[in-house]
Design goal:
The structure holds two protein chains of two kinds.
Chain A (H helix, E strand, L loop, with lengths): L1 H20 L5 H27 L2 E4 L10 E4 L1 H24 L2 H5 L2 H17 L3 H20 L4 H32 L4 H7 L5 H19 L7 H5 L5 H25 L5 H24 L4 H22 L2 H32 L10 H4 L1 H15 L5 H15 L3 H27 L15 H23 L1 H16 L2 H8 L4
Antiparallel strand pairs in A: 1-2
Chain B lengths: L1 H19 L4 H22 L24 H32 L18
Helix pairs in contact in B: 1-2, 2-3
The chains are: A mainly alpha, B mainly alpha.
Chain lengths: 498, 120
Protein backbone atom coordinates (compact mmCIF):
# COMPACT_ATOMS: atom_id res chain seq x y z
CA UNK A 1 0.00 0.00 0.00
CA UNK A 2 2.95 2.34 0.40
CA UNK A 3 2.78 3.45 -3.23
CA UNK A 4 -0.60 4.98 -2.45
CA UNK A 5 1.07 6.99 0.29
CA UNK A 6 4.02 8.19 -1.75
CA UNK A 7 2.09 9.01 -4.94
CA UNK A 8 0.54 12.27 -3.62
CA UNK A 9 4.10 13.46 -2.90
CA UNK A 10 5.80 12.03 -5.98
CA UNK A 11 3.28 13.31 -8.55
CA UNK A 12 3.67 17.02 -7.75
CA UNK A 13 7.47 16.68 -7.66
CA UNK A 14 7.52 14.99 -11.07
CA UNK A 15 5.12 17.64 -12.37
CA UNK A 16 7.37 20.36 -11.01
CA UNK A 17 10.40 19.01 -12.88
CA UNK A 18 8.48 18.66 -16.14
CA UNK A 19 6.85 22.06 -15.78
CA UNK A 20 10.24 23.64 -15.16
CA UNK A 21 11.73 22.06 -18.28
CA UNK A 22 8.73 23.19 -20.36
CA UNK A 23 8.42 26.60 -18.73
CA UNK A 24 8.84 28.57 -21.94
CA UNK A 25 6.21 26.61 -23.85
CA UNK A 26 2.48 26.54 -23.47
CA UNK A 27 2.79 22.80 -22.68
CA UNK A 28 4.24 23.81 -19.30
CA UNK A 29 0.97 25.12 -17.96
CA UNK A 30 -0.94 22.08 -19.19
CA UNK A 31 1.59 19.83 -17.47
CA UNK A 32 0.67 21.63 -14.28
CA UNK A 33 -3.05 21.08 -14.87
CA UNK A 34 -2.51 17.43 -15.80
CA UNK A 35 -0.29 16.83 -12.79
CA UNK A 36 -2.91 18.30 -10.48
CA UNK A 37 -5.59 16.10 -12.04
CA UNK A 38 -3.40 13.03 -11.48
CA UNK A 39 -2.83 14.16 -7.90
CA UNK A 40 -6.58 14.39 -7.42
CA UNK A 41 -6.95 10.83 -8.70
CA UNK A 42 -4.19 9.58 -6.37
CA UNK A 43 -5.75 11.44 -3.44
CA UNK A 44 -9.14 9.92 -4.19
CA UNK A 45 -7.62 6.43 -4.27
CA UNK A 46 -5.87 7.10 -0.98
CA UNK A 47 -9.14 8.31 0.51
CA UNK A 48 -10.93 5.17 -0.67
CA UNK A 49 -8.25 2.95 0.82
CA UNK A 50 -8.32 4.82 4.15
CA UNK A 51 -12.09 4.53 4.30
CA UNK A 52 -11.95 0.82 3.56
CA UNK A 53 -8.98 -0.22 5.66
CA UNK A 54 -8.61 2.36 8.40
CA UNK A 55 -5.19 3.88 9.05
CA UNK A 56 -2.60 3.06 6.39
CA UNK A 57 1.10 3.22 7.16
CA UNK A 58 4.13 2.61 4.98
CA UNK A 59 7.81 2.48 5.91
CA UNK A 60 10.05 4.22 3.42
CA UNK A 61 13.14 2.31 2.33
CA UNK A 62 12.00 -0.80 4.17
CA UNK A 63 13.31 0.37 7.55
CA UNK A 64 10.83 -0.66 10.22
CA UNK A 65 9.29 2.02 12.44
CA UNK A 66 10.39 3.76 14.59
CA UNK A 67 13.81 3.71 12.89
CA UNK A 68 12.85 4.58 9.35
CA UNK A 69 10.68 7.36 8.02
CA UNK A 70 7.00 6.50 8.16
CA UNK A 71 4.30 7.79 5.88
CA UNK A 72 0.89 7.36 7.43
CA UNK A 73 -2.63 8.31 6.40
CA UNK A 74 -5.57 8.32 8.76
CA UNK A 75 -8.88 9.91 7.76
CA UNK A 76 -7.70 13.40 8.69
CA UNK A 77 -4.54 13.12 6.57
CA UNK A 78 -6.47 11.58 3.68
CA UNK A 79 -9.11 14.29 3.61
CA UNK A 80 -6.47 17.02 3.83
CA UNK A 81 -4.60 15.50 0.89
CA UNK A 82 -7.84 15.23 -1.07
CA UNK A 83 -8.79 18.83 -0.44
CA UNK A 84 -5.23 19.93 -1.29
CA UNK A 85 -5.56 18.15 -4.63
CA UNK A 86 -8.90 19.85 -5.31
CA UNK A 87 -7.43 23.27 -4.58
CA UNK A 88 -4.32 22.47 -6.63
CA UNK A 89 -6.43 21.55 -9.65
CA UNK A 90 -8.65 24.63 -9.28
CA UNK A 91 -5.69 26.97 -8.99
CA UNK A 92 -3.77 25.27 -11.81
CA UNK A 93 -6.73 25.86 -14.14
CA UNK A 94 -7.15 29.42 -12.89
CA UNK A 95 -3.44 30.06 -13.49
CA UNK A 96 -3.98 29.41 -17.22
CA UNK A 97 -5.56 32.85 -17.36
CA UNK A 98 -3.95 34.54 -14.37
CA UNK A 99 -0.24 33.84 -14.83
CA UNK A 100 1.54 35.62 -17.70
CA UNK A 101 4.44 34.31 -19.77
CA UNK A 102 7.01 36.21 -17.72
CA UNK A 103 5.94 34.55 -14.47
CA UNK A 104 5.94 31.20 -16.25
CA UNK A 105 9.45 31.80 -17.50
CA UNK A 106 10.52 32.52 -13.93
CA UNK A 107 9.24 29.09 -12.96
CA UNK A 108 5.79 29.70 -11.49
CA UNK A 109 4.42 26.23 -12.30
CA UNK A 110 7.47 24.44 -10.91
CA UNK A 111 7.32 26.38 -7.63
CA UNK A 112 3.58 25.85 -7.38
CA UNK A 113 3.93 22.08 -7.68
CA UNK A 114 6.82 21.95 -5.21
CA UNK A 115 4.58 23.85 -2.80
CA UNK A 116 1.82 21.27 -3.27
CA UNK A 117 4.33 18.44 -2.72
CA UNK A 118 5.42 20.10 0.52
CA UNK A 119 1.83 20.41 1.69
CA UNK A 120 0.87 16.80 0.93
CA UNK A 121 4.16 15.61 2.44
CA UNK A 122 3.41 17.47 5.66
CA UNK A 123 -0.05 15.86 5.81
CA UNK A 124 1.22 12.34 5.19
CA UNK A 125 4.39 12.09 7.21
CA UNK A 126 4.48 10.20 10.48
CA UNK A 127 7.90 11.41 11.50
CA UNK A 128 8.50 14.68 13.29
CA UNK A 129 11.80 15.58 11.64
CA UNK A 130 10.34 14.67 8.29
CA UNK A 131 7.49 17.07 9.06
CA UNK A 132 10.13 19.77 9.56
CA UNK A 133 11.63 18.93 6.16
CA UNK A 134 8.22 19.17 4.46
CA UNK A 135 7.59 22.49 6.17
CA UNK A 136 10.85 23.72 4.68
CA UNK A 137 9.98 22.44 1.20
CA UNK A 138 6.69 24.27 1.47
CA UNK A 139 8.33 27.38 2.91
CA UNK A 140 11.03 27.79 0.28
CA UNK A 141 8.51 27.30 -2.53
CA UNK A 142 6.15 29.80 -0.93
CA UNK A 143 9.00 32.33 -0.61
CA UNK A 144 9.64 32.00 -4.31
CA UNK A 145 5.98 32.30 -5.26
CA UNK A 146 5.43 35.28 -2.99
CA UNK A 147 8.13 37.47 -4.52
CA UNK A 148 7.85 36.13 -8.08
CA UNK A 149 7.47 39.13 -10.33
CA UNK A 150 9.35 41.38 -7.91
CA UNK A 151 6.96 44.31 -7.52
CA UNK A 152 8.03 46.53 -4.58
CA UNK A 153 4.94 45.61 -2.50
CA UNK A 154 5.77 41.95 -2.96
CA UNK A 155 9.33 42.47 -1.71
CA UNK A 156 7.96 44.43 1.25
CA UNK A 157 5.41 41.75 2.15
CA UNK A 158 7.96 39.04 1.43
CA UNK A 159 10.48 40.41 3.91
CA UNK A 160 7.97 40.17 6.76
CA UNK A 161 6.69 36.77 5.69
CA UNK A 162 10.18 35.31 5.37
CA UNK A 163 11.47 36.79 8.62
CA UNK A 164 8.66 35.56 10.86
CA UNK A 165 8.43 32.15 9.24
CA UNK A 166 12.17 31.58 9.64
CA UNK A 167 11.91 32.35 13.34
CA UNK A 168 9.07 29.86 13.66
CA UNK A 169 11.13 27.25 11.83
CA UNK A 170 13.98 27.62 14.29
CA UNK A 171 11.64 27.26 17.27
CA UNK A 172 10.21 24.14 15.66
CA UNK A 173 13.72 22.73 15.21
CA UNK A 174 14.65 23.47 18.82
CA UNK A 175 11.46 21.76 19.98
CA UNK A 176 12.30 18.69 17.90
CA UNK A 177 15.79 18.57 19.40
CA UNK A 178 14.52 18.77 22.97
CA UNK A 179 11.76 16.24 22.39
CA UNK A 180 14.26 13.84 20.85
CA UNK A 181 16.57 14.35 23.82
CA UNK A 182 13.74 13.47 26.20
CA UNK A 183 12.31 10.47 24.39
CA UNK A 184 14.97 9.20 22.00
CA UNK A 185 12.52 8.92 19.12
CA UNK A 186 11.09 11.10 16.38
CA UNK A 187 8.38 8.81 15.09
CA UNK A 188 5.06 10.45 16.01
CA UNK A 189 3.32 7.19 16.91
CA UNK A 190 6.30 6.13 18.99
CA UNK A 191 6.41 9.57 20.60
CA UNK A 192 2.78 9.19 21.64
CA UNK A 193 3.85 6.33 23.91
CA UNK A 194 7.36 7.48 24.80
CA UNK A 195 6.29 10.81 26.29
CA UNK A 196 4.35 9.07 29.07
CA UNK A 197 7.47 8.21 31.04
CA UNK A 198 9.16 11.62 30.83
CA UNK A 199 9.29 14.70 33.03
CA UNK A 200 5.80 16.15 32.48
CA UNK A 201 6.83 19.69 33.38
CA UNK A 202 9.60 19.71 30.79
CA UNK A 203 7.21 18.17 28.30
CA UNK A 204 4.86 21.11 28.76
CA UNK A 205 7.74 23.50 28.03
CA UNK A 206 8.47 21.65 24.80
CA UNK A 207 4.76 21.64 23.98
CA UNK A 208 4.75 25.43 24.27
CA UNK A 209 7.71 25.67 21.86
CA UNK A 210 5.70 23.63 19.36
CA UNK A 211 2.59 25.70 20.00
CA UNK A 212 4.45 28.92 19.20
CA UNK A 213 6.19 27.44 16.16
CA UNK A 214 2.97 26.05 14.66
CA UNK A 215 1.08 29.10 15.89
CA UNK A 216 3.17 31.32 13.61
CA UNK A 217 2.51 28.98 10.67
CA UNK A 218 -1.20 28.83 11.45
CA UNK A 219 -1.41 32.62 11.99
CA UNK A 220 -2.69 32.52 15.57
CA UNK A 221 -3.03 35.56 17.78
CA UNK A 222 -0.59 37.24 18.51
CA UNK A 223 1.69 35.71 15.88
CA UNK A 224 -0.29 36.39 12.71
CA UNK A 225 1.09 39.75 11.57
CA UNK A 226 3.06 38.31 8.68
CA UNK A 227 -0.16 37.14 7.03
CA UNK A 228 -2.05 40.38 6.34
CA UNK A 229 1.31 41.98 5.46
CA UNK A 230 1.97 39.54 2.65
CA UNK A 231 -1.10 37.75 1.32
CA UNK A 232 -2.51 40.63 -0.70
CA UNK A 233 0.69 41.27 -2.66
CA UNK A 234 1.38 38.28 -4.98
CA UNK A 235 -0.53 37.03 -8.03
CA UNK A 236 -4.12 35.98 -7.31
CA UNK A 237 -3.43 32.31 -7.99
CA UNK A 238 -0.63 32.45 -5.44
CA UNK A 239 -2.64 34.18 -2.75
CA UNK A 240 -5.53 31.76 -3.31
CA UNK A 241 -3.38 28.69 -2.77
CA UNK A 242 -1.64 30.33 0.21
CA UNK A 243 -4.97 31.33 1.72
CA UNK A 244 -6.44 27.89 1.21
CA UNK A 245 -3.58 25.69 2.26
CA UNK A 246 -0.56 27.18 4.03
CA UNK A 247 -2.03 28.26 7.35
CA UNK A 248 -4.08 25.06 7.43
CA UNK A 249 -0.88 22.99 7.44
CA UNK A 250 -0.07 24.77 10.70
CA UNK A 251 -3.54 23.98 12.03
CA UNK A 252 -3.16 20.35 10.96
CA UNK A 253 0.21 20.12 12.72
CA UNK A 254 -1.31 21.62 15.87
CA UNK A 255 -4.21 19.16 15.80
CA UNK A 256 -1.87 16.24 15.19
CA UNK A 257 0.69 17.09 17.86
CA UNK A 258 -1.75 18.29 20.51
CA UNK A 259 -3.90 15.18 20.31
CA UNK A 260 -1.26 12.54 19.66
CA UNK A 261 1.76 13.66 21.66
CA UNK A 262 0.98 16.64 23.89
CA UNK A 263 -2.19 15.47 25.57
CA UNK A 264 -0.63 15.07 29.02
CA UNK A 265 -1.68 18.38 30.54
CA UNK A 266 -4.71 19.55 28.59
CA UNK A 267 -5.83 21.72 31.50
CA UNK A 268 -2.85 23.95 30.79
CA UNK A 269 -2.03 23.68 27.08
CA UNK A 270 -5.56 23.47 25.74
CA UNK A 271 -6.70 26.25 28.07
CA UNK A 272 -4.11 28.48 26.43
CA UNK A 273 -5.32 27.33 23.03
CA UNK A 274 -8.86 28.28 24.02
CA UNK A 275 -7.83 31.84 24.92
CA UNK A 276 -5.76 32.08 21.76
CA UNK A 277 -8.70 30.82 19.69
CA UNK A 278 -11.02 33.48 21.06
CA UNK A 279 -8.52 36.29 20.62
CA UNK A 280 -7.61 35.10 17.11
CA UNK A 281 -11.26 35.17 16.07
CA UNK A 282 -11.86 38.64 17.48
CA UNK A 283 -8.66 40.37 16.31
CA UNK A 284 -8.96 38.85 12.84
CA UNK A 285 -12.51 39.96 12.30
CA UNK A 286 -11.91 43.44 13.72
CA UNK A 287 -8.82 43.80 11.54
CA UNK A 288 -10.93 42.87 8.53
CA UNK A 289 -13.59 45.41 9.42
CA UNK A 290 -10.97 48.18 9.30
CA UNK A 291 -9.68 47.30 5.81
CA UNK A 292 -10.89 48.63 2.50
CA UNK A 293 -9.10 46.35 0.04
CA UNK A 294 -10.79 43.11 -0.96
CA UNK A 295 -7.74 40.92 -0.52
CA UNK A 296 -6.77 42.57 2.77
CA UNK A 297 -10.26 41.98 4.15
CA UNK A 298 -10.10 38.35 3.09
CA UNK A 299 -6.59 37.96 4.58
CA UNK A 300 -7.77 39.11 7.99
CA UNK A 301 -10.70 36.74 7.71
CA UNK A 302 -8.28 33.83 7.31
CA UNK A 303 -6.92 34.78 10.73
CA UNK A 304 -10.35 34.96 12.31
CA UNK A 305 -11.44 31.63 10.79
CA UNK A 306 -8.29 29.90 12.07
CA UNK A 307 -9.60 30.77 15.51
CA UNK A 308 -12.67 28.57 14.97
CA UNK A 309 -10.56 25.54 14.06
CA UNK A 310 -8.32 26.05 17.09
CA UNK A 311 -11.47 26.40 19.22
CA UNK A 312 -12.39 22.87 18.12
CA UNK A 313 -8.96 21.59 19.12
CA UNK A 314 -8.96 23.49 22.41
CA UNK A 315 -12.29 22.07 23.60
CA UNK A 316 -11.05 18.56 22.78
CA UNK A 317 -14.48 16.96 23.02
CA UNK A 318 -15.55 14.53 20.27
CA UNK A 319 -18.09 16.99 18.88
CA UNK A 320 -15.59 19.87 18.94
CA UNK A 321 -13.09 17.87 16.90
CA UNK A 322 -15.82 16.92 14.46
CA UNK A 323 -16.44 20.64 14.10
CA UNK A 324 -12.74 21.38 13.65
CA UNK A 325 -12.30 18.76 10.89
CA UNK A 326 -15.49 19.90 9.14
CA UNK A 327 -14.39 23.51 9.46
CA UNK A 328 -10.95 22.80 7.99
CA UNK A 329 -12.40 21.19 4.89
CA UNK A 330 -15.13 23.77 4.38
CA UNK A 331 -12.81 26.70 5.01
CA UNK A 332 -10.07 25.66 2.57
CA UNK A 333 -12.57 25.47 -0.29
CA UNK A 334 -14.36 28.71 0.56
CA UNK A 335 -11.28 30.80 1.24
CA UNK A 336 -9.37 29.79 -1.86
CA UNK A 337 -12.51 30.47 -3.87
CA UNK A 338 -12.96 33.99 -2.46
CA UNK A 339 -9.39 34.90 -3.45
CA UNK A 340 -9.99 33.53 -6.94
CA UNK A 341 -13.12 35.67 -7.19
CA UNK A 342 -11.17 38.70 -6.00
CA UNK A 343 -8.81 38.00 -8.90
CA UNK A 344 -11.66 37.88 -11.41
CA UNK A 345 -13.09 41.10 -9.95
CA UNK A 346 -9.73 42.78 -10.26
CA UNK A 347 -9.43 41.62 -13.86
CA UNK A 348 -12.80 43.19 -14.66
CA UNK A 349 -12.63 46.41 -12.70
CA UNK A 350 -8.91 47.09 -12.53
CA UNK A 351 -8.44 47.06 -8.75
CA UNK A 352 -9.28 45.31 -5.49
CA UNK A 353 -9.47 48.59 -3.58
CA UNK A 354 -13.16 48.86 -2.71
CA UNK A 355 -13.41 52.61 -3.29
CA UNK A 356 -12.16 52.21 -6.85
CA UNK A 357 -14.37 49.39 -8.06
CA UNK A 358 -18.06 48.71 -8.47
CA UNK A 359 -20.87 47.83 -10.81
CA UNK A 360 -20.20 44.10 -10.89
CA UNK A 361 -23.75 43.06 -9.96
CA UNK A 362 -25.26 44.87 -12.89
CA UNK A 363 -22.70 43.99 -15.53
CA UNK A 364 -21.42 40.60 -14.34
CA UNK A 365 -24.30 38.95 -12.45
CA UNK A 366 -22.74 35.49 -12.82
CA UNK A 367 -19.67 36.59 -10.85
CA UNK A 368 -21.95 38.19 -8.27
CA UNK A 369 -23.79 34.92 -7.69
CA UNK A 370 -20.51 33.03 -7.53
CA UNK A 371 -19.26 35.50 -4.92
CA UNK A 372 -22.40 35.21 -2.80
CA UNK A 373 -22.02 31.47 -2.32
CA UNK A 374 -18.58 31.39 -0.63
CA UNK A 375 -19.14 34.76 1.05
CA UNK A 376 -22.35 33.64 2.75
CA UNK A 377 -20.78 30.28 3.51
CA UNK A 378 -17.85 32.03 5.20
CA UNK A 379 -20.25 34.08 7.30
CA UNK A 380 -22.22 30.95 8.22
CA UNK A 381 -25.54 31.34 6.45
CA UNK A 382 -27.70 28.21 6.27
CA UNK A 383 -27.81 26.07 4.23
CA UNK A 384 -24.20 26.59 3.08
CA UNK A 385 -21.23 24.64 4.42
CA UNK A 386 -20.10 27.35 6.82
CA UNK A 387 -23.37 27.16 8.72
CA UNK A 388 -22.86 23.49 9.63
CA UNK A 389 -19.22 24.09 10.53
CA UNK A 390 -20.10 26.94 12.88
CA UNK A 391 -23.16 25.09 14.19
CA UNK A 392 -21.06 22.08 15.22
CA UNK A 393 -18.44 24.22 16.93
CA UNK A 394 -20.90 26.45 18.79
CA UNK A 395 -22.87 23.41 19.89
CA UNK A 396 -19.65 21.80 21.13
CA UNK A 397 -18.76 24.98 23.01
CA UNK A 398 -22.20 25.09 24.64
CA UNK A 399 -21.99 21.43 25.61
CA UNK A 400 -18.61 22.06 27.20
CA UNK A 401 -20.25 24.97 29.05
CA UNK A 402 -17.97 27.49 27.39
CA UNK A 403 -20.66 30.17 27.29
CA UNK A 404 -18.26 33.04 26.64
CA UNK A 405 -16.40 31.36 23.78
CA UNK A 406 -19.69 30.31 22.18
CA UNK A 407 -20.86 33.92 22.37
CA UNK A 408 -17.58 35.13 20.87
CA UNK A 409 -17.90 32.62 18.01
CA UNK A 410 -21.42 33.83 17.24
CA UNK A 411 -20.49 37.52 17.44
CA UNK A 412 -17.51 36.97 15.14
CA UNK A 413 -19.88 35.31 12.66
CA UNK A 414 -22.01 38.47 12.70
CA UNK A 415 -19.01 40.69 12.09
CA UNK A 416 -17.98 38.43 9.20
CA UNK A 417 -21.32 39.22 7.59
CA UNK A 418 -20.49 42.90 8.02
CA UNK A 419 -17.25 42.53 6.04
CA UNK A 420 -18.87 40.42 3.34
CA UNK A 421 -21.69 42.94 2.92
CA UNK A 422 -19.08 45.68 2.71
CA UNK A 423 -17.41 43.93 -0.24
CA UNK A 424 -20.83 43.21 -1.74
CA UNK A 425 -22.03 46.79 -1.43
CA UNK A 426 -18.88 48.40 -2.78
CA UNK A 427 -17.73 45.96 -5.45
CA UNK A 428 -21.04 44.60 -6.67
CA UNK A 429 -23.88 47.00 -5.89
CA UNK A 430 -22.40 50.47 -6.11
CA UNK A 431 -21.78 51.79 -9.62
CA UNK A 432 -18.19 51.90 -10.80
CA UNK A 433 -16.63 55.28 -9.86
CA UNK A 434 -15.30 55.74 -13.40
CA UNK A 435 -18.67 54.84 -14.89
CA UNK A 436 -17.42 51.78 -16.76
CA UNK A 437 -19.49 48.60 -16.96
CA UNK A 438 -17.12 45.71 -16.21
CA UNK A 439 -18.70 42.96 -18.34
CA UNK A 440 -17.42 39.40 -18.30
CA UNK A 441 -17.55 39.42 -22.10
CA UNK A 442 -14.60 41.83 -22.08
CA UNK A 443 -12.35 38.87 -21.25
CA UNK A 444 -11.45 36.49 -24.08
CA UNK A 445 -13.68 33.37 -23.96
CA UNK A 446 -10.90 30.88 -23.19
CA UNK A 447 -9.49 33.00 -20.39
CA UNK A 448 -12.99 33.58 -19.09
CA UNK A 449 -13.56 29.84 -18.88
CA UNK A 450 -10.23 29.34 -17.09
CA UNK A 451 -11.13 32.04 -14.57
CA UNK A 452 -14.70 31.01 -13.89
CA UNK A 453 -14.61 27.20 -14.11
CA UNK A 454 -12.53 26.74 -10.91
CA UNK A 455 -14.66 29.33 -9.10
CA UNK A 456 -17.85 27.56 -10.14
CA UNK A 457 -16.40 24.15 -9.25
CA UNK A 458 -15.38 25.23 -5.75
CA UNK A 459 -18.74 26.95 -5.24
CA UNK A 460 -20.42 23.67 -6.22
CA UNK A 461 -18.37 21.85 -3.56
CA UNK A 462 -19.55 24.42 -0.99
CA UNK A 463 -23.17 23.92 -1.99
CA UNK A 464 -22.91 20.12 -1.94
CA UNK A 465 -21.38 20.15 1.56
CA UNK A 466 -24.07 22.59 2.61
CA UNK A 467 -27.11 20.81 1.19
CA UNK A 468 -26.06 17.26 2.07
CA UNK A 469 -23.94 17.66 5.18
CA UNK A 470 -24.74 14.27 6.68
CA UNK A 471 -22.10 12.12 4.95
CA UNK A 472 -19.52 14.84 5.60
CA UNK A 473 -20.43 15.09 9.28
CA UNK A 474 -20.36 11.29 9.55
CA UNK A 475 -16.93 11.34 7.96
CA UNK A 476 -15.75 14.08 10.32
CA UNK A 477 -17.05 12.01 13.24
CA UNK A 478 -15.01 9.01 12.12
CA UNK A 479 -11.94 11.23 11.63
CA UNK A 480 -12.40 12.84 15.04
CA UNK A 481 -12.77 9.41 16.68
CA UNK A 482 -9.43 8.39 15.17
CA UNK A 483 -7.83 11.60 16.40
CA UNK A 484 -9.15 11.23 19.94
CA UNK A 485 -8.20 7.58 20.23
CA UNK A 486 -4.81 7.28 18.53
CA UNK A 487 -4.44 3.55 19.24
CA UNK A 488 -5.35 2.64 15.64
CA UNK A 489 -2.77 5.16 14.41
CA UNK A 490 -0.10 3.80 16.73
CA UNK A 491 -0.86 0.18 15.84
CA UNK A 492 -0.79 0.91 12.12
CA UNK A 493 2.65 2.47 12.40
CA UNK A 494 4.37 0.32 14.99
CA UNK A 495 2.58 -2.96 14.44
CA UNK A 496 0.47 -4.87 16.91
CA UNK A 497 1.97 -4.76 20.41
CA UNK A 498 1.81 -8.32 21.66
CA UNK B 1 30.81 19.25 28.11
CA UNK B 2 27.06 19.74 28.48
CA UNK B 3 27.63 22.82 30.61
CA UNK B 4 29.94 24.34 28.03
CA UNK B 5 27.46 23.66 25.24
CA UNK B 6 24.58 25.01 27.30
CA UNK B 7 26.49 28.22 27.96
CA UNK B 8 27.37 28.55 24.27
CA UNK B 9 23.75 28.01 23.27
CA UNK B 10 22.65 30.60 25.83
CA UNK B 11 25.18 33.16 24.62
CA UNK B 12 24.29 32.55 20.95
CA UNK B 13 20.57 32.87 21.63
CA UNK B 14 21.04 36.01 23.70
CA UNK B 15 23.15 37.68 21.03
CA UNK B 16 20.72 36.52 18.36
CA UNK B 17 17.69 37.98 20.10
CA UNK B 18 19.51 41.27 20.64
CA UNK B 19 20.39 41.43 16.95
CA UNK B 20 16.93 40.39 15.79
CA UNK B 21 15.25 43.09 17.84
CA UNK B 22 17.60 45.78 16.60
CA UNK B 23 15.20 46.86 13.85
CA UNK B 24 17.56 46.43 10.93
CA UNK B 25 17.18 43.65 8.39
CA UNK B 26 20.87 42.90 8.03
CA UNK B 27 21.22 42.50 11.78
CA UNK B 28 18.08 40.39 11.77
CA UNK B 29 19.69 37.97 9.30
CA UNK B 30 22.84 37.77 11.42
CA UNK B 31 20.68 37.07 14.45
CA UNK B 32 18.83 34.38 12.55
CA UNK B 33 22.10 32.67 11.61
CA UNK B 34 23.23 32.71 15.25
CA UNK B 35 19.94 31.39 16.62
CA UNK B 36 19.79 28.63 14.03
CA UNK B 37 23.24 27.51 15.15
CA UNK B 38 21.98 27.57 18.72
CA UNK B 39 19.12 25.29 17.63
CA UNK B 40 21.57 22.95 15.92
CA UNK B 41 23.72 22.78 19.04
CA UNK B 42 20.59 22.07 21.08
CA UNK B 43 19.80 19.04 18.94
CA UNK B 44 23.40 17.94 19.19
CA UNK B 45 23.53 18.29 22.96
CA UNK B 46 20.11 16.69 23.47
CA UNK B 47 21.19 13.54 21.66
CA UNK B 48 23.74 12.34 24.26
CA UNK B 49 27.32 13.59 24.20
CA UNK B 50 30.24 11.20 24.20
CA UNK B 51 33.94 11.65 23.78
CA UNK B 52 36.05 9.48 21.52
CA UNK B 53 33.44 6.73 21.13
CA UNK B 54 32.72 6.17 17.44
CA UNK B 55 29.67 3.99 16.81
CA UNK B 56 31.63 1.20 15.16
CA UNK B 57 30.61 -2.42 15.56
CA UNK B 58 33.60 -4.58 16.43
CA UNK B 59 34.60 -7.29 14.00
CA UNK B 60 32.63 -10.47 14.53
CA UNK B 61 29.99 -8.75 16.71
CA UNK B 62 26.40 -7.92 15.64
CA UNK B 63 25.63 -4.96 17.85
CA UNK B 64 27.34 -2.06 19.50
CA UNK B 65 28.76 -2.72 22.92
CA UNK B 66 29.03 -0.04 25.58
CA UNK B 67 28.45 3.67 25.04
CA UNK B 68 28.92 5.03 21.58
CA UNK B 69 28.26 8.35 19.89
CA UNK B 70 24.69 8.78 18.70
CA UNK B 71 24.76 9.27 14.94
CA UNK B 72 21.13 10.37 14.55
CA UNK B 73 21.42 13.90 16.01
CA UNK B 74 24.44 14.46 13.80
CA UNK B 75 22.39 13.49 10.77
CA UNK B 76 19.59 15.79 11.92
CA UNK B 77 21.98 18.70 12.46
CA UNK B 78 23.51 18.11 9.05
CA UNK B 79 20.08 18.21 7.42
CA UNK B 80 19.16 21.32 9.35
CA UNK B 81 22.40 23.03 8.33
CA UNK B 82 21.80 22.29 4.66
CA UNK B 83 18.20 23.48 4.79
CA UNK B 84 19.24 26.53 6.80
CA UNK B 85 21.91 27.36 4.21
CA UNK B 86 19.30 27.42 1.46
CA UNK B 87 16.90 29.53 3.47
CA UNK B 88 19.56 32.05 4.47
CA UNK B 89 20.82 32.32 0.91
CA UNK B 90 17.28 33.23 -0.12
CA UNK B 91 16.80 35.58 2.82
CA UNK B 92 20.02 37.48 2.11
CA UNK B 93 19.14 37.92 -1.57
CA UNK B 94 15.67 39.08 -0.53
CA UNK B 95 17.13 41.62 1.88
CA UNK B 96 19.47 42.87 -0.83
CA UNK B 97 16.52 43.19 -3.21
CA UNK B 98 14.55 45.01 -0.54
CA UNK B 99 17.41 47.44 -0.17
CA UNK B 100 17.64 48.12 -3.90
CA UNK B 101 13.89 48.44 -4.57
CA UNK B 102 12.69 49.94 -1.31
CA UNK B 103 15.84 51.88 -0.47
CA UNK B 104 15.87 50.98 3.21
CA UNK B 105 16.80 48.18 5.58
CA UNK B 106 14.53 49.35 8.40
CA UNK B 107 11.38 47.22 8.46
CA UNK B 108 9.56 50.07 10.21
CA UNK B 109 10.00 52.22 7.10
CA UNK B 110 8.74 49.54 4.70
CA UNK B 111 5.12 50.55 4.40
CA UNK B 112 4.36 49.87 0.76
CA UNK B 113 2.33 46.73 1.38
CA UNK B 114 0.62 48.24 4.39
CA UNK B 115 0.50 52.00 3.83
CA UNK B 116 -0.06 54.07 6.95
CA UNK B 117 -3.52 55.59 7.35
CA UNK B 118 -3.89 58.93 5.64
CA UNK B 119 -4.52 61.52 8.37
CA UNK B 120 -7.75 63.42 7.71
Amino acid sequence: MSWLLSLPIAIPFATAVLAFLLRDRSAGRWVSVGGSALLLLAAALLMRATLAEGVIAGQMGGWPAPFGITLVADLLSAVMVLITAIIALAVAVYALADIDARMEHLGYHALFNVLIAGVTGAFLTGDLFNLYVWFEVMLIASFGLLVLGGRPEQIDGGVKYVALNLVSTILFLTGIGLLYGMTGTLNMADLAQAVDGTDQGLLTVVAMLFMIAFGVKAALFPLFFWLPAAYHTPAFSVSAVFAGLLTKVGVYALIRMFTLVFDHDTGFTHQILLWVAGLTMVTGVLGAAAQSDMRKILSFHIVSQIGYMILGLALLTPLALVGAVFYLVHHIVVKANLFLIAGAAQRLTGSTELSRIGGLYKSAPLLAVLFLIPAFSLAGFPPLSGFWAKFLLVKAALEAEGWVIAGVALAVGLLTIYSMTKIWAAAFWAPHPDGIAPRLSLIAPRERAALLAPVAGLAAVTIVIGLAPEPFVAFAEAAAAQILDPSAYVTAVLGDPK
Amino acid sequence: METLLALTIGALTGAAIYLMLAGNLMRFIFGLVLISNAANLTIFAAGRLTEGAPPLIAEGADTLTGTAANALPQALVLTAIVIGFGLFAFAIVLVFRAWTTLGTLEPDEMRLAEPPEARP
